[in-house]
Design a protein that fits this description.
4 copies of one chain form a homotetramer. With 214 residues, chain A is of the alpha/beta class. The first copy, chain A, has one domain: Aldolase class I (TIM Barrel), CATH 3.20.20. Chain A is built from 10 helices and 8 strands. An 8-stranded parallel β-barrel of chain A has the order 1-2-3-4-5-6-7-8, surrounded by 5 helices. In chain A, helix 1 links the parallel strand 1 and strand 2. The termini of chain A are close together. Chains in contact: A-B, A-D, B-C, C-D. The interface between A and D is large, with 43 and 43 residues.
Chain lengths: 214, 214, 214, 214
């Protein structure tokens, strides 16, 4: 299982979460990555944790003020990027262009989508993985694996019908039980945010999360 | 072959083009539709021509000021809608929602896209048809069937790999030869705009266009 | 007082509301306009009511698929347009370009904004009027004149500091008392929507609304 | 004069430009700041140069994946931010919200705009400065001070009519002569990009630029 912790614009200490993630990954062998604000990529990467961007812009080098250039993210230590998160929806053509930008910069990619139909569409654009996150469950604490397990299995089927891209499961994931349920539904990873980023003890939260797969 | 004439925001007389299209469709049996500005749907539909919207918004009935509600377009006489035209790119989630809106209002749908990869993604969202329009050729007068025939055949293959959705061919189509070439590459229709909308004699332009398939 | 009834994408009968508005305007001498979906402009204008667009695009004649061309709206009978409604926020440069588009087509303009600072900014772009609509009150039934009277008087002052553009008052307006309160705070008109569009009897709702100024 | 060097998404070495800017600022006493990609803020700030963000998002702490949080930019060393650059146009309401976000994080602000009318609108939102950049001149090498001096003086007048906010001059600035001309037209600073970022010798380019005001 791949655990991707999205720090969004939370008022957390990104270094504390990064160090916790690096330690838990080392201790357990579970792959854990942290996606901070672009301005924090550098310092998060210095902790040694696998570092991801939350987004890269659909642009190449050039006149693009205010963009997040894939090469700049990579330069600051990112090895992957989320794209089309429900809080940052992109145009279809821009998901494609952002994927090509990420490829140029050797960033691994996860494209988020709402439902199995959009998952198939995202898979057709040839990312490294897709993540199904029903928007109505994000931030609720109700895991998609419990609230709507069919959406996960249907997404796994939809992705498989287009290519062999792995499916991550987002929205409402916070406990080891959620992670286990996601794995049972065919997900090869989880996307989570507040469950770790807002935890009093991020390290303990991560340890409890990955416990079922250790 | 299906011929869809997009009037964009051209300074043409939409009624003149609509009447020409209705006559040529009647005379030749070729399916021809006209997509005017939303504010002109009513009057274009009154000519008896098959009338399409250029876009419908990804919304249901509700508080959506400035939207183009699918039901209002249908009410004014539209029987289909373009979506995601290169001049009106949509978010992936919004293409999906606009398709569902169009379904609710019984509008047929054509989703535009730039390249075979995006064509496959669009096809995965279950429209009635997709249209490949390389943005660099739009408005050039150089038909995609000549400038880049592989993009058409690859789009037909990409769409077929996902579903059995027909592919239209846009960008630079204006003559009967272009239409013929598009058909030869596997396209089941063409999307065109200035070649008819800006013609001195739209009826003659349409007659010449459909001549090879009559 | 100017009463502008925004039909949004409501499932109302636009002709019924238009006819009611035309009658009440005739009977009372109060200026009342109706802003339907673009696809309904034609039929609403045919009722004789003052007809407004809900939005026009920041474009001139040309290749703008899915736009709402100011000239097309005017052609269909619109004599004015809302811009930058909180459900259709525009870029600063696009408000400017849409205002110039509306001018070209002889459409009167009302630019909406959230707060006095944005009202001053909108006024600087030289519209015919501005409308203050705190987004948190839209659709609540709580009139801004009651919930936050200072925002109205501050908006009137802010607009006056930049130019002599009149201020309309939106958000939560539905009764004659609300209209009266808005006038008392310096507003020269009201923007309303559900209070009329969703009323069982739109004519009665409008009569009650304008009663204090008849 | 304030010199703000925007590195956009150029393939330059941000550290080299930052070090050059820091040295020239030290040597000449001219205020010079550098605005790199968000992912480079940290390392640019470490050079000691005055460091600006190219953009901050109109958000507070919270669930905003892919945003550029003002606090994160400040945390990485930014002391100011551009907003509404012509390559990153914002909604009017979002310029306002981004300005408030920047204030919260103690970032100085410069809001860009196309023309005197938009400059007045931007000034009404209470930034620390505004910058006039006619989009047709950006990247041309033709300075606005030469191509269209009236747009600069009209912008200075427009800003003054709303508040006492200083006006910077962008678009096509690259030489000392351009800077001098901008100052002569009432600008209190210049915004430039390729003239320094793409120079073979950024330090020499900056020295030549500021020479007239040393």
């Amino acid at each position: 299982m791949f655990v991707l912790v999205n720090l969004k614009a939370y008022p957390c200490d990104p270094i504390e979460v990064a160090e916790a993630a690096a330690e838990v990954a080392d201790d357990t062998g579970v792959r854990i990555a942290v996606a901070p604000q672009a301005a924090h990529l550098d310092r998060v990467a210095e902790t040694g944790v696998e570092t991801w961007a939350q987004h890269v812009s659909p642009v190449e080098y050039g006149s693009h003020t205010g963009s997040t250039l894939a090469e700049a993210a990579a330069d600051a230590g990112a090895v992957g990027t989320l794209l089309n998160h429900s809080e940052n929806r992109l145009k279809l053509a821009d998901i494609d262009a952002s994927l090509r930008a990420a490829e140029r910069a050797d960033l691994e990619t996860v494209v988020c989508a709402n439902n199995p139909r959009q998952i198939a569409a995202a898979a057709a654009l040839d990312p490294d993985a897709v993540a199904v996150e029903p928007p109505e469950l994000i931030g609720t604490g109700t895991p998609v694996s419990k609230a709507d397990p069919d959406i996960v299995t249907d997404s796994v089927d939809a992705a498989a019908s287009v290519s062999d891209v792995p499916v991550l499961c987002g929205a409402g994931i916070s406990t080891g039980e959620d992670l286990d349920a996601a794995a049972g539904l065919g997900a090869e990873g989880v996307l989570l945010a507040s469950g770790v980023a807002k935890a009093d003890d991020p390290k303990a939260a991560l340890e409890a999360l990955v416990d079922p797969v250790v």
